Amino acid sequence: MSRASPTRISARIEKRTTVDAPAEALVKVPLLDLQLQYSAIREDILAAVTRVCDSQHFIMGPEVEQLETEVAAAIGAGFAVGVSSGTDALLVALMALDIGPGDEVIVPTFSFFATASVVVRLGATPVFVDVEPDTLNIDVTAVHAAITPRTRAIVPVHLFGLCADVDPLLEIAESHGVTVIEDAAQAIGADYQGRQAGTLGQLACFSFFPTKNLGAFGDAGMVTTNDAALADRVRRLRNHGAERRYYHREIGGNFRLDALQAAVLRVKLPHLPAWNAARRANAAGYGQQFEQAGIAAQLRLPQQPAGRTHIYHQYVVRVAERDRVREQLTASGVGTEIYYPVPFHRQECFAGVPSAAGAFPVADAAAAEVLALPIFPELGSVRQSQVVAALAEALR
Ligand SMILES: *Cc1c(COP(=O)(O)O)cnc(C)c1O
């Protein structure tokens, strides 16, 4: 078998490089390169930022209102309320349902930290459940088993950009009088049975953290809903519970969205469908190239069940000897990440959560095997081939 050592891969690439260009730039494939996206829309971004600077209106205001209208229209939601981050979107969504001490909220044990931490911050109890082996999304059967008279909400996470199987969850929720809050932080533009992420539950939470598929230039988030009363409540809670300035009907927080972030997001939003399509094309490219390289059998690839559109916020494969493979990819200049190395039931800060004592074999197995590969829209075929070659090398 002919083998290309990492050094030989670099040597081949360097030959293509002109004398002046730094070889590094071609050899390295970062997990994500935000510079490429920025350079393509730089003029529009700077114009939008200038517009806000010239207005000297920095908090809320017309940019935020227009972004809310545009996001609601883009995903088909009745209402969208801009907030300060994805974490605050989750927090304020729970607050809008008056979730607190004595209440239980069912969350998958395999997600980003904020999905569970907001529940604890409000004095409620997260109830961890396992995920499905194929999608790593919340396991519907496990949700069924976890429902108690204290359950107030279920939070399906559309992990890595694939919607959770929401319809059966909505049925469970309806029959028990509980609310479904989507954690759609990774899934703007994903769809499920013809409906978009952010319109599936009673409330949904988006993050515009800079590395998300739609990323601001700082922290930002949004809550969407079709329920006018819930939208009003979220709007009030994001601004200290005040409807009118200095008249507080209840205690909220400062969860407001900056005009600068809204203006940046308004430039980016129209590009989102093309960026998501490019991520999907990259994912299809990986599938084909892993076959060609003869390594498909050694990888468990992300799944896209019928009726759902995966938007690949992350392209996460599962592989044996993950840590060794990752080290070798790092040595070959390929950026990777582990989402997530520690499920909630194993987090030190959740040791006191009763459900943490349970068994979550699927999440534990996933935590040991998951590896995110570069999937950003501007990846391109040269860089993608480098990733595949480096991975093939690591698996030989
Ligand atoms: C990013 C993320 C969040 C939190 O969003 P922030 O904007 O970083 O606060 C919540 N849940 C999931 C699944 C995420 O990926």
Terminal CA distance reads: 10 Å
Assign an overall shape. globular
Q: Major β-sheet, in short?
A: 7 strands, mixed
CA-atom Rg in angstroms: 22 Å
**Which spans have pLDDT < 50 for at least 5 consecutive residues?**
1-25
Q: Looking across the biggest beta sheet, what order are the strands in? A: 1-9-8-5-4-2-3
Bound molecules: pyridoxal-5'-phosphate
Question: Proportion of β residues?
Answer: 5-15%
**Total beta strand runs:** 15
Q: Please state the average pLDDT score.
A: 94
Order of helices and strands: HHHHEHEHEHEHEEEEEHEEHHEEEHHEH
Alpha plus pi helix count: 14
Portion of residues within helices? 40-55%
Quaternary state of this entry equals single chain
Descriptive notes:
There is one protein chain. The protein has 396 residues and is α/β, with parallel strands linked by helices. Helix content is 41%, strand content 14%. The protein is built from 14 helices and 15 strands. The chain has helices at residues 6-16, 23-27, 34-55, 62-75, 86-96, 114-121, 140-146, 166-176, 228-237, 259-268, 272-292, 322-331, 361-369, 380-394, and strands at residues 79-83, 104-108, 125-129, 151-154, 179-183, 191-192, 195-196, 203-207, 221-225, 242-244, 247-248, 299-300, 308-309, 315-319, 370-373. Strands 1-9-8-5-4-2-3 form a seven-stranded mixed beta sheet, with helices on both faces. The chain has a three-stranded antiparallel beta sheet with strand order 7-6-13, with no helix packed on it. Strand 6 (191-192) and strand 7 (195-196) form a beta hairpin. Helix 11 (272-292) runs parallel beside helix 14 (380-394). It is globular, with a radius of gyration of 22 Å. The model is unreliable at 1-25 (pLDDT under 50). The structure holds pyridoxal-5'-phosphate (PLP). The site of pyridoxal-5'-phosphate (PLP) has 15 residues, from helix 5 and helix 6.
